[in-house]
Amino acid sequence: MRLLNFLRSKSFWGSVILAVVLVFVAAFVALKWLKTTTNHDLHIQVPNLDKLDTDQALQKLEEKKLRMVVLDTLDYDKSLPPLTIIEQDPAAGMDVKENRKIYVKINAAGFGKVSMPDLEQLTFRQALATIRSLGLKEGTKSYRTFIGKDVVLGVSQNGKSLKQGDKVLKDSRIDFVLGDGKATLSDEERDVAPAID
């Protein structure tokens, strides 16, 4: 009974109304404070950093009060200038806040080196697929007498014979020595007894 009387009293309802008003005032003040401290309405447009070197990009970003973070150096793309920006995040034209980090990826200064795999005794088609997957190109082909046609007998570059593990620059050409398929096996190699007349 006392509880019901208290819930009907003016002091209870006055406290409820005062609490609701205080919550609304606190929320209004908090939102206004957040709007001013986070620069809610202030946006900076991200500049286009494509093909700029890091010094130029850094200067451009500092003018707009943005920061640059280099994420990675990507494989060399010869269609683009070396050591220039080729990717950025956020993209150019996006609206961001002041002091935002702009993440960039840079074109390498030149081609990196790869290790030569063991290509001997593979077919030319298998060997070609393997070197292309490493970023190498097909050079010249020469043939030597061998039983297997288009079987890789050796690889070279600029006249120097290559073996497994040798380092070569990506995008360079690899020359092949292939079997011509014209050799035949002797009776002994075929392990067949000669015919008796």
Automatic annotation (TrEMBL):
Residue ranges annotated for the PASTA domain, each copy included: 36-108, 110-180
Write down a Pfam family by its short name: PASTA
Q: Which Gene3D superfamilies match?
A: 3.30.10.20
Q: Which UniProt keywords apply?
A: Membrane, Transmembrane, Transmembrane helix
Q: Which PROSITE patterns match?
A: PASTA
Q: Which residues cross the membrane?
A: 12-34
Checking InterPro entries in the record gives: PASTA_dom
User: Which protein are we looking at?
Assistant: PASTA domain-containing protein
**What species is given as this protein's source?**
Myroides indicus
